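Researcher: Quick sanity check before group meeting.
Model: Go ahead. Protein one:
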Amino acid sequence: MNFKKYTTWGLAINLLLITSTSVAQTYKSSSWSTNFYLGGSNLLGDLGGSRFIGNRGVFDYNIRANRMALGTGLTMNTGAFSVGLNVLGTRLVSNDAYSRQNFQVARNLNVRTNLVEVSILGEIRPFSRSAGFNRFYVYSGIGGIYFKPMSKLNDEWYDLRQAGTEGQYLENGPGPYSEIDIVIPYGIGYKFRLAKSTSLLLDLG
């Protein structure tokens, strides 16, 4: 079961902590900031979805699978580049009952997992010298996730790792689900300056 395909979006408040460093007679502007994130998440998998038959990414997006996402982070900003450590927590869900495909509704499978992501992200502001675009940014990095998939049957939730679904424990099976995995987060965003040391970020990743 793959939980590496999910999307997040939301708002982040960026608070400036430290400014200014100098080396000899060369001055370089730099700063540290903390980020507080509030947004949502959506699982893009082979259960549920929209009118497509799973695994079609954002084209199989279903708003009923949206869940809240919360996060925080610490970022070092230098010129047009930033690097930061971030922690994000959310719940991912998917349900065949959300689908418009009759065979998926009849299949009646569902899954949910609480997910924690820790990542190191590099951020670039490609238009930092251009008027009107100086707050647009793109980012990518590497991270790890912890998750524990569960499914509901007869009003009871079952741990799918312990249940051995998808042939986990068969002789030639794939083995038990891992509870950790590596992810490559990426996305785009825009920053609005609210005060001298505070910014509001709109983010999609």
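Researcher: Fine. The other one?
Model: Protein two, sequence then structure:
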Amino acid sequence: MAENKRPKTLRLVDRVLARLSRVTSSGNFIPEIDGLRFFAIAAVVLFHIAEHVRFHGPVHYADAPRSNIYRLCSAGFVGVELFFAISGFILFLPFAAHFLRGGKQPRLRQYYFRRVTRIEPPYLIHLGIAFVIALVINDRDPLQLAPHLMASMFYLHNLIYGMSSTLNMVAWSLEIEVQFYLLAPLLAGLYRIRHSLQRRLAWLALTMSAMAWRPCLSSPLHCSLLAYLPYFLVGFLLADLFVTTWNRPPTATWKQDLMATGAWLLLIPATELDAWRQWILPPLILIAYVGALRGRYWRQIVSNRWLVVTGGMCYTIYLYHVFIIGLVGRVASGVMVTQLYWANFLLFLIPSTIAVLGVCAVLYLLFEKPFMYRDWPQTWRAAMVSRLAHRGVKA
């Protein structure tokens, strides 16, 4: 009865958000994680909008780096590292729960099967769409694109060509994610060390080693898991703390919120310190995420329903946002009529953001959410068998 008393607009918003909400097959939903995903994908989208205005708008800005807006948005590249830390937490969490708290043992066969059935179908659909866009809109040669398509299908483009996929420039990070999926069960063996201090010292030694070897990596290893392992290991420690230390509700204190706020603010200038980036960003991300998961006010922020729902669509947004920004740029280039970078950025920001959210919401419902259900292969197979039987064909 109380639901019927709510305004129709609010009831409609609730239905839309419920429709767009992510499916969690494990039953262990942590809304703060999807809220953090929102911050990561927002940073990436803003970065590419800023780059589009600078390099592909009607005015080319040689002095754009001096713009405060451009400097702020160019720090959005850190969104990729934010995603890596989240992936580390999510994938390490069941192993930490098993080894450190006696939880259910993760089955490697189920682990890898779930990764394939959840991630691969939307990715392959996206590659098909990207291939068509390259042929029809960008007038590319299909014979030249075919090897890049095959390399991207098997997540090997970085290693074979030493650069991001020509079909979708953001796909490089997905290849690194897949490399991590393969290695994560082995790294999770550190949780077998029962003594918490010894385990965390081993984590620290591995993380510091990974930070130290990154400057020594050359192509194609500079775009591999070896170069970004410290960010995934941030997730390792977060999962450790989540299982062993954070088994009680957080205390109502402002200290973690204050530290997290400082870490978030320092992420922006830290991205410009190329020589020290690999040493500074992982601990800053760790502090920021601790505040988001345990701080009083930051937990409220990252648990906001709008942020959680949008963050739950981050995979689709990540796959398609560059294409949508480019298409909007073709249409809206006439809107950017000033010589001021910040003005053109703001003029382009509104239509591109609306387009990214609107189009990706539809693509998410079509090409990602159906594959979030753990039993979708069995459901699809049963439906196919039923359809064939109806036509008199034996499966």
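Researcher: One line on it for the slide.
Model: The mean pLDDT is 91.
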